[in-house]
Design a protein that fits this description.
Elements (H helix, E strand, L loop, with lengths): L5 H17 L3 H4 L2 H11 L15 H4 L5 E2 L23 E7 L2 E4 L1 H6 L4 E5 L5 H7 L9 H9 L4 E5 L8 E8 L5 E11 L4 E10 L6 E11 L4 E9 L4 E11 L4 E10 L2 E10 L5 E10 L4 E10 L5 E10 L4 E10 L6 E11 L5 E10 L4 E11 L2 H9 L4 H12 L1 H4 L5 H16 L19
Length: about 450
Amino acid sequence: MTMSSLKQYTDLFRQERVALDGNAPAALNAGRDRAMVFLTAAGSLPVKSDEGYEKTSIDEMFAPDYGVNVNRVNFPVNVAESFRCDVPNITTLLAVVVNDRFVPTTTLMKNLPEGVTVCSLRDADSALLGRWLGKTVESEDAALAFNSLLLQDGVFIHVAKGVKIPKAIQIVDIFSGQTPLLAPRRVLLVAEDGAEISVLKCDHTQTPGVEFASSEVIEIFAGEGAKVDWYDLEESSPATSRWCQFRCRQEAGSSLNICAATLTNGKTRNEYLIDVVGDHCETRLSGMAIGSGTQHIDNSSRLTHRSDRSNSDQLFKYVLDDNATGAFEGLIEVSRGARFNEAYQSNRNLLASTGARMHTKPQLLIYNDDVKCSHGATTGQLDSAALFYMRSRGIPLAEARKMLMQAFMVDVIEKIRLDSLRDRLRHLLELRFSGSCGDAACATCRNRADRQV
């Protein structure tokens, strides 16, 4: 019987508990014992035989002997290396996470509006951390427990009541190092009543030949009438594994828009847990995944309507080539007594080669009749008639394929409410499909005014 990879991390926890606690705020230390109890009872990280993990074994993803930066060593990094793509500039307030260490830039600190806090978890207000950390979705699971066990820092974003941020906050996650490394990462975003914020998070790998793994938890609280946009772009390396969970809570009248794009990666598992607890909410969850080579991309969602008169819409699209594999499992749940909700879910997939594989499983769980809900999935290949027509008009086959694949992703891009980011993503897709942006160090951003770490 093969030993679970979890043991190396629980052993590390027991050996380094003093150092872990000594280098982290009290709010993070408070969750370690509960996480250890959960993981000990589970016995292993999720494997393919577990429900919801049919195509992705987290245990295998974290099986290499990754190091953990328990003693908070500062790794050297050239931030400018992660801003090389010559694409249109986006004006943002920039912060950097090097492996698992938060590094604010001087531009960020100088230009934050009044009522907005962006800092490390260790520097955050202890009362706010105690109130919100780990509380957005009231459930314990493997992703949260594993992250909480070894977490020592993260990013805290707080927007006070009624404050509207004119510029997007940008968080650039960078992996850098010469030995295999696991980085536990956490972002806690709290938008108080009536607040508005947009966040762009980008994942990059600066040393592509080194094996890296990230355990990420993104917690988002949208207060009454708040508006939160979250955009997540992954451009990592074939040697990078990512396990990321979004835990979101919406109060009455709030609007949440999450759009994720996996452009280059190794193995990725994204989980979305969204609780709509207030009436009259709007939820938009969309994602695109482009896989080639042996890339693996798995998206899983569970969106729960617990109140009345809200609407949600989910759209995930995949384009898979070569021997890439993809998976999507989505669940819409409408609780008893949650009336007059509208909820829709769609997964559409394009297989551009005979070696590509896609697993899809959309689901509905409805406990009353006063709703409008639908779900569906399609998987197909490039339209041969369209290809023939385009080639008959003198368009080379490679160009025709690229144009059809770009067109397939248009309605996901349109979910983005930042005009400049929509333009950027169109450009990045063109580069990705043409094969001219395969370098893992290539990123979605450049020309930053401040690249100091």
